[in-house]
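Deviation from plan, reported transparently: zinc ion complex.
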Amino acid sequence: MKKIIPIILLLIIGLNAINISSQKVKNANTVLVSFQKKDISNPKLTFNKQHINFFKSNKKEDTYYALVPISYYEKVAKHKIIISYIKDGKKIFKGVPLEIIDGKYKSEVINVPKGKVSLSQKDKLRTKKEYSNAIKIYNTINKELYFDEKFIYPLATKITSDFGKKRVYNGIFKSYHSGTDFKAAVGTPIKASNNGIVVISGNRFYAGNSIVIDHGQGIYSCYFHLSKMNYKTGDFVKKGEIVGLSGSTGRVTGPHLHFSFRVHGMQVDPLQLINLLNNYTVY
Ligand SMILES: [Zn+2]
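Because the crystal trials were delayed, the predicted structure below was used instead.
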């Protein structure tokens, strides 16, 4: 009898706890917040003015989860994630500390022909249109979840350029590397990382022939510079199916696969995200 009471107490505390995948996170990484609670409604999260809805887990009873993508440009600081939900007609607030640490991304100098740096008027209009179309898609949060298995890498080759490298084009800091580059000779089969719906299939100025898959709940994977695209917009693709063949289309110096992810519209480290999603049982 004496031993039972502490165990019950622990269970009650455990049920009220909010779980966070990591209390310290690098810029451009993603954290997962989850909690278990009965009879609640409207669970929401706020981080740095960004509002994120929770989703209910299909695998764990009364469990809610949310992915929090951290911007590449987020400053090193101590923050708080604010969680709210409605229980018995009352709005409950809870705070969880989150510290942003420096990802310490390296710099790389890229020299490209001048014509490709200063775009023609026609190309400027084209890239602007392609960018706004893509952003509209990435900001669309589909409530469905299309996967229930672990994510895979699109191919099993060497990584030739890491995510996050600061890019200095012809001496000017322009951007950072928004994905992970895998070594791939022209014609290498590229696998879908998981199930989803193809939302972009076409040629774009920078990314070349591109396939983008909506995995549901704000998670998108991207496969760029392909020589061949096997699926059209609207097609359902299953994990491991060959979405296309690698190539060197778009603004590249040689053939490779540029693999990237967006979460709630934000560009995040794809390999850290895969590791995160594959290690949590809420999915
Ligand atoms: Zn790349």
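The chain has a mean pLDDT of 91. We consider this an acceptable substitute for the interim report.
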